[in-house]
Amino acid sequence: MTLEELMRRAGLWRAGEAPLEGGLSTGFSVLDAILPGGGWPRLGLIEILTSQPGIGALRLILPALAALSRLPRWLIWVAPPHRPYAPALQAAGIDLTHVLLIDRTEASGPTAGCVPRAPPATLSTCWSWRRAAEGEFWAFEQALRFPECGAALWWPAHLEALALRRLQLACEAGGSLGILFRPVECANQASPAALRLSVQPIVATPEVQVRVLKCRGSLRARECRLFL
Hints:
Layout: H1 3-7, H2 29-34, E1 44-50, H3 62-69, E2 74-78, H4 86-91, E3 99-102, H5 123-145, E4 149-154, H6 161-174, E5 177-183, E6 195-201, E7 207-215, E8 223-227
Parallel strand pairs: 1-5, 1-6, 2-3, 2-4, 4-5
Antiparallel strand pairs: 6-7, 7-8
Helix pairs in contact: 5-6
């Protein structure tokens, strides 16, 4: 296969190419203004990388989740680190009748859903760690392939490159949005995700800095500040 034939394949794209359709508004005009298509991609994998929990990364996507729930499309939460607070989701405009929670599995050793950065030392707990991680990955991948899924959310610490590729393909197969919340240390890992953002707190302010690490399409700017 020649290079020209390879570049004509639908699954490939060049840096700087604009998306074929408008994006899904983030609900933040400043962020919409810098993202290709004016918002989140309509389908594909999104990685949101943070240096610490509790800085508002989830609030960044609530407006888009609310819009998807009204279509209506399912919002599937896979093993969140904390149980979603229903009144807060409802206040953000999310239709709770289209929220599906896949909770942590009961297992010995570490709680399923809290995937450590390194497995524990003992054989028994190491097996539980792997089983929990594999179960959550399977659930997330199946959620992305579900035709009525608008978005699926997951909080893994570590994923291999092949696993990320499988998730991106699952998004394309199901026409869904996959949202991964990961540690900022993962920024150096190559990823097939359609969009990668880092979210960092700004010292002595209630704002965060959102930086685009990777996207499909050209950017007007690479970063912005938001009040979350």
